[in-house]
């Protein structure tokens, strides 16, 4: 039985296939149906091609713009009708509500541009806090930039290069974050403490660029000239990669000046960055990495690479790892400093004992 037309195929004698009388009319109908289907399919194909051609002529972006308000936004927090309250949370001046991203429904691009405009205001606001609250000064780099040469800048305390005791270096990650920030989204949606580096700066006072080249430049022109015997570093996300690259380029200098390094959800990779065995061993002794994890804060985690010990930051949110592990980081710094001071004291004691014995022997000889 033919699976297409439904007729029987019969063989008689030596001749070829023979159709029964009923099937003769059926095959005619079948051929007609196939022809009609082909015509219908051709029409659908032509309609589809025409529709695609029509859509190709339509600029969807331009079509969306017709219903969008202009991308003109306030230039200050006050004009945005937002302010930071006493807890460092961004609140609407009139309603007291947190920042609302979807200020206008079905206008995602406009809402995104509004968010970015607010983010730039936040950046300037944080710069102002660094200068007025933290008393940091802005240093333009390169220090010998010529007219028209692209420049960047860092913030540093007045005694950063002259303090003989300690120096803290903060290195943020990549993206839209700028000096003084860990995560812009946290500043806007949570608070200043979790999203900025200010708590780290204030804590350091009590007791920068995101690229590897920038960190290296800052080390060569600023940190390496500082008088501090004990340098501490906190590096978040891509900042951890930048620090490892600094180790690769200035291994001996870093080992001589840096006391301890706290990484938070660092994106470094000692294999891909071709890190030496000496650097890996030093990182294992002097570095700790607090990573995003559902485990409680400070829970030891398996190290995927033979570099620095890994601990849970007590949160699964990447951008929160620095803030949640804040106390643990400074506890780690304090313990590292004490261990170093104890070691130096022991060495000095051994030196004095050795000298005393030497003088005693000489006296006996005389």
UniProtKB/TrEMBL annotation:
It comes from the Eukaryota. GO terms for molecular function: siRNA binding. InterPro entries: Arb2 (IPR048263), Arb2_dom (IPR053858). Residues 340-366 are annotated as: Disordered. One of its GO terms (biological process) is regulatory ncRNA-mediated heterochromatin formation. Residues 73-206 form the Arb2 domain. Residues 357-366 have a biased composition (Basic residues). One of its GO terms (cellular component) is nucleus. This is ARB2 cotranscriptional regulator A. It comes from Oryzias sinensis (Chinese medaka).
